[in-house]
Amino acid sequence: MFSSFVFDIGDHWELWFLDGAQEEKKEGNLQKREEQATGKKKKIVAPFPSVAHRRPSSMALSASSGITLLQRYLEACEKHGVVANLDIQNSISEAQDSPSDFILKLNMEQLTEADMMALADMLSYINSFDCHAVDVTHNREIHNGQLLLRVLRSVGPKLRIVDLKKSTFGRDVMRDLLHRGMQCQYLNMSFSRFRKLDMIGHFPQLHTLILDFNVYLTDLPEGCFKATPSLTRISMCETKAQGIADPC
């Protein structure tokens, strides 16, 4: 029967797997012979330590609850009765282990609706963590656009990049997005199918808007950018929008 032991040595996690006293003695003798031959002490480090054995950075801990963002995600999965998505776990772990910026990068293209429900639940707590920003990518057909918007809006002001190029929205979802807005800083909606940029929702942090290759886009209503006070860059290459010069 295997048992495991975890030791904290400096900035490293070390993990030993021992199979009874005889195996322990055998491994110990082998290690001693190798150390005598090389003159160096051997350090046995697990090549792929599990997420549970990693030491979380101080930025990954919630100031209010003292748990990590990964733990919050696992709790959300349990709450919604879903199996934790490995890609989401890896994204959270990479962000938590970053030595500098705690930026969560999520690719949502392969997520099920159940995955998105748990993710939205976790992200609703993101402001209690020292996470600097959240970037979201979805570059394929969207089966449940309203659920995607729910995930994006659950992030709040820490939402930085939203890349939705080549995503196909239903008319109701597009209207919801443009009329209610969101708090992202960069929004890419290239290769979409909307005809009118009726952007009356509040986008307080949006500084870059990419609308390239929206071949059906023809109408820019007067005042459509009034709710984007921080907007400094718009790209509309290969569109049919009237009243503006083609910058490309």
TrEMBL record:
Domain of life (superkingdom): Eukaryota
Domain (DWD hypersensitive to UV-B 1 N-terminal): residue spans on this chain: 68-240
GO biological process terms held by the UniProt record: cellular response to UV-B
Pfam families hit by this protein: DHU1_N (PF20919)
Gene Ontology cellular component terms for the protein in this record: Cul4-RING E3 ubiquitin ligase complex
InterPro entries associated with the record: DHU1 (IPR046377), DHU1_N (IPR048514), LRR_dom_sf (IPR032675)
Protein name: DWD hypersensitive to UV-B 1 N-terminal domain-containing protein
Upper taxonomic lineage: Eukaryota, Viridiplantae, Streptophyta, Embryophyta, Tracheophyta
